[in-house]
Amino acid sequence: MAAGCAGRLGIKRTHGRIPFPDSLFSEFEPLADRRAFVLSFSVMSLPRIVHRVWLPTVMVATIAVAGCIETDIPPAGSYSEVLVVTEGGRNDPLARALRPHLARRLDYFISEETQFKLQNLRASELTANPYFKNIILCGPASPTTLVGSHIVSLLGPEAVEKARAGTANIFRKEDLPGVGQVTIIITGASEEMIFDVLRERGHEVNDVLEQSCRRRLQNYLLGKKDSDLTRQLYQKYGFTIKVPTLYTLLSDEPDPPGIELLRDGPSRVLGIFWLDWDTTPTVKEGQELFGIREDYVYRRYDGDTMDSTRVRFSYGRLGEYPAVKMEGYWSNSRSTAGGYYRSYFVYDEREKLLWVVDLLVYAPGVPKHPLFRELLALAETFRYN
Question: In which residue ranges of the chain is pLDDT below 70?
Answer without folding.
Answer: 1-74, 127-129
